[in-house]
Specification:
It contains 9 helices and 15 strands. The protein has about 325 residues and is α/β, with parallel strands linked by helices. Strands 12-6-7-3-2-13-14-1-15 form a 9-stranded mixed β-sheet, sandwiched between helices. A two-stranded antiparallel sheet has the order 4-5. A two-stranded antiparallel ribbon has the order 8-11. β4 and β5 form a beta hairpin. The radius of gyration is 22 Å and the shape is globular.
């Protein structure tokens, strides 16, 4: 079995991404996945951006994203519009239209369903239980590893596939003339299916020191779907470093950019700047044991690095 030691790098850059990205050449990154400050949110942390000015504030940054993203790359934007004066604000919809004019293709919209969203009551609406994860691309031909995020077929398959009718063993076209069809028999013997565009993830995250950290499972899903090992991932609003931590665990290189210096320090404490990992052919990574062992490996390297730094001081 062939094996090689490869260096997986994670870098945290301090500053505004619109300026920091000027140091990177065109077509550098394979994936951009991020959750920017929402309109009028985190005023004590980031100052807040008024919804009326959000598009104007975002476009110079997305212009740089467009430049540094590879033609085969993907940009995932996690964002949610706010309710104001009894109605939803339209700044997210306006941003989507503006990004399309800027040259982005709005390829897909994923919904992050928050399984344990914060309870509450309002006189004219119910609590928010979902957020948008918007997918943008530079071209229509982009990298996508659909098999990497397949899900178990579920219990329904046991009963459904045991008793197939005459319309299940051939392509059965929709009876409402929609043009859609299905062949249930194609799924006999399969234990996994492709997922939907709704992600059912809890809001809990391991880092409680950041005002808006998202769960590791969110960037993990998109990193698996749109990148391969050793690819380069960018989070231009990296916060406490969640995206870089996940990218490193999945053996992807990463760059995180953060405006607040205290969050840069927090992110740097969560990653190993340079992680030497064993890349073996024929081995599947991503299983629970693999993640656990890699986590142990990362902690050992981190401890050794800190010990060495202490001796140097």
């Amino acid at each position: 079995m062939l094996a090689a030691v490869r260096e997986i790098k994670a870098e945290i850059k301090h500053g505004d991404c619109v300026n920091v990205l000027l140091d990177y050449p065109d077509n550098t990154f394979d994936l951009i996945v991020t959750s920017p400050p929402y309109a009028d949110k985190r005023k004590n942390t980031y100052g807040g951006v008024a919804p009326e000015k959000y598009v104007e504030w975002f476009l110079p940054r997305s212009k740089e994203f467009l430049r540094v993203l590879k033609p085969t790359g993907t940009f995932i934007l996690n964002i949610k519009e706010k309710a104001e004066n009894g109605e939803r604000h339209t700044f997210v919809l306006e941003l989507i239209l503006a990004l399309r004019k800027q040259g982005w293709l709005w390829t897909e919209e994923f919904i992050w369903h928050k399984k344990n969203c914060y309870p509450g009551k309002w006189p004219n609406r119910f609590r928010d239980a979902w957020e948008r994860c918007l997918q943008f691309n530079k071209t229509r031909h982009f990298k996508m590893n659909q098999e990497a995020v397949m899900v178990p077929m579920g219990d329904w398959a046991d009963a459904r596939l045991k008793s197939l009718g005459k319309n299940d063993v051939v392509r059965f076209d929709s009876q409402v003339a929609s043009g859609f069809g299905k062949n249930i028999a194609n799924w006999i013997g399969r234990d996994k299916a492709y997922p939907t565009n709704v992600l059912h993830l809890a809001t809990e995250c391991g880092n409680k020191s950041h005002s808006a950290a998202f769960p590791e499972a969110l960037p993990e899903w998109f990193i698996k779907l749109f990148t391969s090992e050793e690819d380069l991932v960018l989070d231009p609003f990296v916060g406490s470093g969640t995206t870089c931590v996940v990218a490193q665990r999945l053996r992807r290189n990463s760059v995180g950019i953060e405006l607040k210096s205290e969050y840069c320090e927090l992110a740097e404490s969560e990653i190993i700047p340079s992680d030497m990992v064993l890349m073996e052919t024929g081995v599947k990574y991503g299983e629970n044991n693999g993640r656990r062992n890699n986590g142990i490996h990362r902690r050992k390297l981190k401890a050794a690095s800190q010990k060495k730094a202490g001796k140097a001081n």
